[in-house]
Amino acid sequence: MKECHMSSPIKYFGYIAIILMSIVVSFSAVAHGVDDNTKQFLQSNEGVAFIPFLYIGAKHMVTGYDHLLFLVGVLFFLYRSRDILIYVSFFTLGHSVTLMLGVWNDIQVNAYLIDAIIGLSIVYKGFDNLGGFKRLLGFEPNTKAAVLIFGLFHGFGLATKLQEFEFGREGLLENLIAFNIGVELGQFFALTFVLIVLSIWRRHASYLKFSTVTNTSLICTGLMLTMFQFTGYLTNT
């Protein structure tokens, strides 16, 4: 009876991993994409449109599963509110800087390569959570610096999607600020949900018991996303 009881959670989390990776395979092609109505608006908009850009930014982050998977990895072993605030602030600073500067200065970066690096950021965090760097290198890289650096790449990922549309310079700064605020609001909403789920799960012994399964799933998902984007780069450039 005990053996049967223990196998059920393992199967349960295995199914979660399979579903998670299936979602990545199914939707990687449209990661950070926008719907037709949003495309039409972005292509035709002139001047300041604060509220629409605010909404687009929030929607973009809430549906940006690769950003959220990275943050899940970052938050997985953070228990104190102070630590959560510090790490999320580093990530926010990183992606805000490159989002704003990338679009404002028209810094062109290949979207496939940026999304591949974002995939690697998920791999990094899952591997780090498993203590892989300590075993492999004998030390752990500075996690705050890593979150900041990867945050810069995540910001370029956001910027590349906006750069697919030709923006007029009129009202660009205001629209970028609105979009970035929307991204932060979307991130706050998504992280609130993630933290609620993690806080409930942490009350059960299965949290630490199946941390290996969860973080291994992050690694596999990140690798699949990275390979998908590299394939897109090789076949479309």
Query: What about the largest sheet?
Result: none
Structural class, from secondary structure content? Answer: mainly alpha
Percentage of β-strand residues:
under 5%
Q: Kindly state the number of beta strands.
A: 0
Which geometry do the CA atoms define?
globular
What count of domains describes the coordinates?
Answer: 1
Distance between the termini: 56 Å
Count the DSSP helices.
Answer: 11
Q: Which regions are unreliable across 5 or more consecutive residues at pLDDT < 50?
A: 1-11, 25-32
Compressed to H and E, one letter per element, the order equals HHHHHHHHHHH
Overall mean confidence score, pLDDT? 83
Helix content: over 70%
Q: What's the gyration radius in Å? A: 19 Å
Q: Your description of this structure?
A:
It is a single chain. The protein has one domain. The protein is mainly α and 237 residues long. The chain has helices at 2-27, 36-44, 50-62, 65-75, 81-104, 111-129, 132-137, 143-162, 172-201, 206-209, 211-236. 35% of the residues are buried. Helix content is 79%, strand content 0%.
What features would you highlight for this structure?
79% helix, 237 residues, mainly alpha, disordered N terminus
